[in-house]
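Subject: AAA domain-containing protein structure
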Amino acid sequence: MKKIAFYNNKGGVGKSTLAVNIAHALAKVDYKVLLIDLDSQNDCSLMLGIDRNQERKSFYDLINPHSAANIKECIIEARENLDLLPNSKYEIIEKEFNNNAMFLTTLLDEKLAGLEEMDYDYVIFDCSPSRSIINSAILFFIDYIFIPVQLEIPAIDGLATIFDYLEDLRLDFAKIKLIIPNMYDSRTNEGRENLKMLEESFAGQEIVTNPVYRRIKITEATKQGKTIFEYDEEAQKQLYPIIERVVEID
């Protein structure tokens, strides 16, 4: 079971969109995937066409000391081979994590006990764009970090703060397996120059993927509660090389 976090401490980089679409892509090639939404916006449900206001158990019920929920009760079947563990009451989750801060390195091992027996090939976290106690627990728990980055100078410069975060947590930079340039516009000099800058910054490390182009079809799919693999055959093709990279990671 490979555990992956989609993380960037800057919002608006398309992190949730990539997490949902890559999770569905893996499911479509017969991997069993669990997507855990721990973004404060809870956008994964919206992007998968699931009513966020419907009464159901969520990650909150797993960490609520007054709840007897087990993980199977909190998981929704979103697509064939793709399950979703949504969240609710994010502020209370954060408070509970703060109450257990001394156990942060193993907190999710306890809260997500039972995952290993559920035969998932991939467990994918969609994280909030912040440096938070919840994200710290996730980063201790996962094997790999994927960083979506918008091809703008502030976003590229901001990557340094992610490395600072890992250093403060005493986590190995090798956890960062992919940096995914997102919302790329090849028609502009700025877009081309920023992509070149990003690639040169990580030259020799082989962690920068092919860029994901800015496409209106991706936005349209999201608004309709569909993934790009259910909406537009042409737009989905640009994700194929990234999926290949994901599958190849040991």
